[in-house]
What we know:
Number of helices of chain B: 0
Radius of gyration of chain B: 13 Å
Oligomer: heterodimer
Distance between the termini of chain B: 38 Å
Structural class of chain A: mainly beta
Strand content of chain B: over 45%
Largest interface: A-B, 28 and 28 residues
Helix content of chain A: under 10%
Amino acid sequence: GQQLNQSPQSMFIQEGEDVSMNCTSSSIFNTWLWYKQDPGEGPVLLIALYKAGELTSNGRLTAQFGITRKDSFLNISASIPSDVGIYFCAASNAGGTSYGKLTFGQGTILTVHP
Amino acid sequence: ETGVTQSPTHLIKTRGQQVTLRCSSQSGHNTVSWYQQALGQGPQFIFQYYREEENGRGNFPPRFSGLQFPNYSSELNVNALELDDSALYLCASSLVANQNEQYFGPGTRLTVT
Lengths: 114, 113
């Protein structure tokens, strides 16, 4: 079935550093999304991307929808302690007669040292 | 605006039993999706409901079933529980016009012993 390969699996960084993580697939998707999940909570939507090549920002977060429609990356600038959590990429081909099934990556565990 | 809520928060069941999990969608959202998240993994799509009917299903057996009610709330039922069903069950709601942007509830942690 469809799978998303997310890397790195985990990151240990100092407060103030920039972070980059990415997600690749062997299949084409028409939407890419990035979520953050804190312990004991559900994933929270950070950014949604709808067009190949699109670059979208949300505060210190920037994400891009790859031109081949098979990948996406997420950058976090000037990390702070509250950025700690698990970041998931997700992708979908919902639209028209196709229902909204999200396929998720395995997650990137981010630890920020003060 | 009310977010997605789920109940119960935690649940412990014995193998072979049946369980019902509940979800109230975000206000204004008419589509509900259910996901299973095993420890250390990303969520896996179970199924989606729209207009009280199943609108798509992932790779889960028929003992996983659901309902959606006229107020868009939803239930996930699992029969004949197995040990591998232990997981966090997440409900997500969205607008049918934009099924990609799904907003998740806090989840129900199910433990099967």
